[in-house]
Write a structure and sequence with these properties.
Layout lengths: L1 H11 L7 E5 L3 H17 L4 H16 L3 E6 L13 E6 L3 E7 L2
Antiparallel strand pairs: 1-3, 2-4, 3-4
Helix pairs in contact: 2-3
Protein name: Dynein light chain
Subunit structure: Consists of at least two heavy chains and a number of intermediate and light chains.
Subcellular location: Cytoplasm, Cytoskeleton, Cilium axoneme
Length: 104
């Protein structure tokens, strides 16, 4: 009985060390670029989400045109308006959420 409780407690919290794409309607090229940029930025600026978001935004603006928006953080909710085929919602490093979208 005690073994079942211990197994259930360890199964509840799973920390992913890889990017987990929760929702995306981007093209494959754009999604791959967004995921790679997000991982790089979160690893480079692990203590500063604002700088990580700025790095992703500027890179996406240069490659795919202006008006990208990026939010990186923990425990937030959102409701946004975006252009079709330009949103990506990713989890990285357990509870770090990254939302990238374009709205002109």
């Amino acid at each position: 009985m005690a073994e079942e409780g211990a197994a259930a407690a360890t199964a509840e919290k799973i920390i992913h060390t890889y990017p987990l794409v929760r929702h995306s309607d981007m093209s494959e090229e754009m999604r791959t670029e967004a995921v790679e940029l997000s991982v790089t930025a979160c690893e480079k600026f692990s203590q500063n989400n604002e700088l990580a978001a700025r790095m992703v935004k500027e890179s996406m603006d240069k490659k795919f045109g202006p008006a990208f928006h990026v939010v990186i953080g923990e425990s937030y909710g959102f409701e946004i308006t975006y252009e079709c085929t330009t949103i990506c919602y990713i989890y990285f490093g357990g509870n770090q959420a990254i939302c990238i979208w374009k709205c002109s």
